[in-house]
Design a protein that fits this description.
Layout: H1 8-32, H2 36-64, H3 90-114, H4 118-147
Length: 168
């Protein structure tokens, strides 16, 4: 995933581009989703990706005294870099997000092994773990989307309202 000739600043630039792409992807997904609960989860992911970018910029300034001057055109996972969500089902978009979050986890694992200073290793390991938690959240939502597709087409749903009350 990371080329042998990549320098640490290049790796950070790639990570920053990826976090920007992820935030843009979640912003587009937010527009497509109707369910309030799912919107909250997507907003959480959006804010997380924005925080990751800030963390990486801070690390770059601390370690190299500068931010990367040129970001690559594409991040780690091309699945996050889509022009339009038109014509795609929400579950398909979540599947792209799952693939991208898993790719980000693998990237941060590899990047951690490529840097030498302990602070950078800790930060990259933290980001790896957070990306794993994002993948778990997305996987859970995919399962719910598949199981209850009709409930995700409304602004709010209450599964309990559809159940019959038995008892006193």
């Amino acid at each position: 995933m990371i080329s042998a000739e990549s320098k640490p600043l290049d790796i950070l630039a790639l990570a920053i581009r990826s976090e920007i792409d992820a935030a843009r992807f979640y912003q587009k997904l937010l527009i497509r989703v109707k369910t309030d609960l799912l919107k909250q989860k997507i907003r959480f992911l959006l804010l997380e990706e924005r925080k990751h970018r800030i963390i990486l910029l801070r690390l770059s300034r601390q370690r190299f005294g500068q931010e990367p001057s040129n970001l690559p055109d594409q991040g780690i996972e091309p699945g996050f870099k889509i022009d339009s969500t038109r014509g795609m089902e929400v579950v398909e978009l979540f599947q792209l997000a799952l693939k991208a979050e898993r790719g980000a986890e693998a990237f941060y694992r590899e990047a951690k092994e490529r840097v030498e200073d302990s602070l950078a290793r800790q930060i990259l390991d933290y980001l790896r773990r957070v990306e794993r938690s994002h993948a778990a959240l997305i996987l859970s939502e995919i399962e719910l989307l598949k199981r209850f597709p009709e409930h995700y087409d409304v602004a709010a749903f209450h599964l309990g309202e559809d159940m019959v009350h038995i008892g006193p």
